[in-house]
Design a protein that fits this description.
Number of helices: 11
Low-confidence stretches: 1-22, 497-505
Helix content: 25-40%
Radius of gyration: 22 Å
Number of domains: 2
Distance between the termini: 33 Å
Length: 505
């Protein structure tokens, strides 16, 4: 079970100083560096993202981590910085984040590793990252002869640290811009029925079907970065849809981001580093909920796979955005980066939910005891329901327990970037974008260990992704997350904008 904190929201002294010290320089010079790390695992490897164990014997595509380092300076004086790391992984475990930050601190003396932001594309065909029952509610019985979880974390840490050092050492005065376009990639995946219940991927061709539960965000938000030689070296592309078109495969696969990267590098050159970000999309997926026959016909006539079609939509939207904004490059921008650790109210487990989870957990355990071969199908389900029992026992002792989560908020020119660890339902992302004072707001989810964060209406409808097993924070915590994120974003436009040295670099 993820670590919880049994006290009210607070800011520690160092965190307060970090936030106060990060004052905006309105016209700071920006220095940028970028690189890409190959984070493909050694095979065979266990894959994360389904309840049953899958062991990949081959890789369809490489897995990559895109790195972008940004530093603001006034003359030769450094002001603030960020290092974005976008990973072809299902999520970012706390352990993986902490191990990488520690490795980077060894290699770049004095660097504030809290400025490193890791996020995942949520591909369901990437390695398992956790095997500690105290850290994860989703555990697999990984057999002998398969790559160890720790071995993959070590591989990831060293390769990504190498790439961060390369990007940091290679930073030079550059320029950037931002823009947006629209392309339908994600579909709301929760079907609502006459009785008010909701089902992820529920049937829509039945009389009881009423509507899809939530909004779909079809904006493709992009950031573009050039080096001092006016070479386009990086793009950050934010798509409100997880990369899980190929989620059921038993092979290593970066999903739609692989063809997106290939197409953009073919157009702009091999020096381009592409960072894939996933917007608030806990209730979205690339799978059609209806119109399936019509879309399949169009893809067949176009001689495209569904994955090709998704990639083409993203690439077209990004290229069209680039053509519009490329003449609006900025070498001096307002820049600031704040990180906070919030303590969100936990979702409380009811007695009925406890009893239901206990029944399922015990049934899975009994089946595995009677037939150990069933562990591959049932072990993750057993630990998933078992985590609810731990939470229920904990809340009996600490009914006001909170859940600690890390967020980052940045101003880059007239755009804002904010991160969260969750599979955040799209309604929350819309609230943030609608209330933000930025010209353009990038919401980046899965910058941490996942778990769904459903809306109030989703919790009312129930179903996977909105039931207590799927999340440790509910709608009350979601609103706290939105409100604090907005306070931080809008503070960038309210503070007196002056140049000060940030001693936390």
């Amino acid at each position: 079970m993820k670590k919880t904190h049994l006290y009210s929201f607070f800011l520690s002294g160092w965190l307060f100083l970090a936030c106060v010290g990060s004052v905006i320089a309105q016209d700071a010079n920006i220095y940028v560096g970028a690189s890409t790390a190959d984070i493909s695992p050694e095979l065979p490897v266990a894959l994360m993202g389904q309840f049953h164990l899958r062991v990949a014997e081959k890789a369809d595509t490489p897995l990559y981590a895109g790195i972008l380092a940004i530093e603001s300076r006034q003359g030769d004086v450094p002001l603030d910085t960020v290092v974005f790391v976008s990973c072809d992984l299902v999520y970012i475990s706390d352990q993986l984040r902490d191990e990488l930050r520690a490795e980077v601190k060894k290699r770049i003396p004095g660097f504030n590793s809290d400025k490193i932001i890791l996020s995942a594309t949520h591909t369901h065909t990437a390695p398992v990252l956790e095997d500690d029952p105290d850290e994860s509610s989703f555990l697999y019985p990984i057999p002998e002869g398969v790559s160890k979880v720790k071995s993959y974390r070590d591989l990831f840490t060293h390769r990504v640290a190498d790439a961060i050092v390369k990007a940091w050492d290679g930073r030079e005065r550059g320029s950037m811009t931002w823009g947006l376009n629209r392309a339908a990639v994600g579909y709301n995946r929760r079907a609502v029925y006459e009785d008010g219940t909701a089902v992820m991927y529920g049937k829509t061709d039945v009389r009881e079907f009423q509507n899809l539960e939530g909004y779909e965000d079809h904006d493709i938000n992009s950031l573009f970065f050039w080096n001092g030689r006016d070479e386009l070296i990086a793009m950050s592309i934010d798509v409100a849809c997880p990369a899980q078109e190929n989620e059921h495969l038993s092979t290593v696969n970066a999903d739609y981001w692989h063809p997106v990267r290939e197409a953009l590098q073919e157009k702009f050159g091999s020096q381009l580093n592409v960072l894939g970000w996933i917007g608030a999309a806990g209730d979205q997926s690339p799978h059609s909920m209806y119109r399936k026959a019509g879309e399949a016909r169009m893809q067949e006539l176009a001689n495209k796979t569904r994955l090709d079609d998704i990639a083409d939509r993203i690439v077209r939207a990004t290229v069209d955005t680039y053509e519009i904004v490329k003449k609006d490059k900025h070498s001096k921008v307002a820049f600031s980066h704040k990180m906070e650790k919030l303590n969100l109210p936990m979702r409380m487990i009811t007695k009925e939910e406890y009893e239901e989870s206990k029944e399922v957990q015990e049934d899975c355990a009994a089946q595995i005891a009677a037939d150990p071969t069933k562990a591959a199908q049932l072990h993750a389900k057993m630990t998933w329901f078992g985590d609810v029992l731990k939470r229920y026992d904990m809340q009996q002792k600490h009914p006001d327990a909170t859940y600690e989560t890390e967020i980052h908020v940045l101003r880059i020119g007239d755009s804002a970037v904010c991160t969260n660890q969750f599979e955040l339902f799209t309604d929350y992302g819309i609230r943030i974008q609608a209330r933000s004072k930025a010209v353009q707001t990038f919401v980046v989810q899965l910058a941490g260990p996942g778990t769904y964060l459903p809306s109030a209406k989703a919790m009312s409808g129930g179903g996977y992704s909105a039931v207590c097993q799927s999340n440790v924070v509910g709608a009350e915590g979601g609103q706290v997350l939105v409100d604090r994120t907005i306070e931080l974003i809008n503070s960038f436009w309210e503070e007196k904008e002056e140049v000060k040295v940030n001693n936390n670099l």
